[in-house]
Design goal:
The chain is an all-alpha fold. It is 75% helix and 0% strand. The longest helix is centred in the C-terminal third of the chain and has 46 residues.
C-alpha cells in the first residue's frame, strides 16, 4: 500500500506539478517564485513528484537529497529569494502531496491507514532533510557572499566600520 501511494503521486506528477505551480505563483507567501520562468518552476516540481519514490525509499543515505537541495538553496540565494519563501514553498509542496493522498487515496482498512501513516512519516523525514539542506546551501551562499564583500571592501580600502548598504552580487 505504501508503494501504491507513492505510485499514485508519481503517476499524477504532471497534473500535480501544474496545480502546485499555480498555487506558488498566486500565494503572497511565495512571491519570489513569480520571478522564475513558469516552465522551469513546473519542471522542478515535476521532478520532485516523479522521483518521489526514489527519494523516499531508495536514496537511503539521502546523498542525492542533500546535494539537490543544497544546490537549490544556493541557487535561490543567488536569485535573491528570501529564505522564508523557499521554506514556505517546500512546506506547501509537502502539504500538496498529503492533500492529494487524502483526496485520491482510499484508506478504509487498518492496513491502508497504517500505510498512510508510514507514508506521512517518510514524507516528513524527506521534507525535514530538504528544508535543512536547502537552508544550509542558502546560508553557505550567503556566507560566501559576505566574505566576498568583506574582501572587496578591504581591497578597496574601505574601513571595516563603514556603513554597509545591502546589495546582491550577481553572476
Amino acid at each position: 500500500m505504501l508503494v501504491s501511494l507513492i505510485e499514485m503521486i508519481e503517476n499524477n506528477a504532471a497534473d500535480m506539478a501544474e496545480d502546485l505551480k499555480e498555487r506558488l505563483l498566486q500565494d503572497p507567501a511565495t512571491l519570489s517564485y513569480q520571478t522564475l520562468d513558469e516552465h522551469t518552476l513546473y519542471e522542478n516540481i515535476f521532478e520532485l513528484y516523479s522521483r518521489l519514490g526514489h527519494w523516499l525509499l531508495r536514496d537511503t543515505e539521502k546523498g542525492e537529497v542533500r546535494s539537490h537541495y543544497s544546490n537549490i538553496g544556493r541557487q535561490r540565494f543567488e536569485d535573491g529569494f528570501p529564505l522564508h519563501q523557499i521554506i514556505q514553498a517546500l512546506v506547501a509542496t509537502k502539504k500538496h502531496i498529503w492533500d492529494t493522498v487524502l483526496e485520491k487515496g482510499i484508506m478504509t482498512t487498518a492496513k491502508e491507514l497504517d500505510s498512510a501513516v508510514d507514508f506521512i512519516t517518510y514524507l516528513n523525514r524527506f521534507f525535514d532533510m530538504a528544508i535543512y539542506h536547502t537552508t544550509l546551501g542558502y546560508c553557505e551562499a550567503q556566507n560566501l557572499s559576505t566574505a566576498i564583500l568583506a574582501e572587496l571592501q578591504k581591497s578597496l580600502g574601505i574601513p571595516e566600520d563603514a556603513p554597509r548598504r545591502r546589495f546582491m552580487l550577481t553572476r
